[in-house]
Amino acid sequence: MRGRRAAHGPPLRREFSSCGTISRQFALNGLADAPCQPYLIFMSWFPRPSSPRAAFRDLAAFMRQRSREQVIGASLALLVTAIIVIEFLVDAKIGTAPPAQVTYVELYPSNRTDADIIADQKKDEAKKEAAAKERQRQFKKLENQFGM
């Protein structure tokens, strides 16, 4: 390739591109190699200086050119957004668990007779009826107080 000439331009030369492969390029002033193929195709839409350090440098350079009022406004906007997001995260954890329920269990001996069971059931029924009558008496008292 050294002595040959292209049909319409300067001679061709072999160079290494930034990708590490050999590329042929016309020796025209100011032209660069074709862009390399990314090794992660799905990440190829990121802009060229895509390291976090470069992004923070970019942000700092952008913020240096802003006025004081714009920086304060941007800071307040970020603060309000962060507070709203934190509220949603905290609120999702408050009051979602059901309260603990206490269950009272009465233990009976395994050698109880049917007569003992029936007697206990009658006692429990009498207690329920007494509680219902007491509640009815309280409602009657409220009814009399309000004149209904």
Task: Provide a descriptive summary of the structure in words.
By secondary structure, the protein is mainly alpha-helical. It is built from three helices and two strands. Strand 1 and strand 2 form a beta hairpin. The N and C termini lie far apart (about 110 Å).
SS class: mainly alpha
- What integer value in Å does the Rg equal? 42 Å
**Biggest sheet details:** 2 strands, antiparallel
Elements, N to C (H/E): EEHHH
- Strand proportion, as a percent range, falls in 5-15%
- Number of H- or I-type helical stretches: 3
Straight-line N-to-C gap = 112 Å
Number of strands: 2
Query: What coarse outline follows from CA principal-axis ratios?
Result: elongated
Strand order of the largest sheet: 1-2
Low-confidence stretches: 12-17, 20-29
Query: Average pLDDT value?
Result: 77
Fraction of helical residues? 40-55%
Short description:
This protein has 148 residues and is mainly α. It contains three helices and two strands.
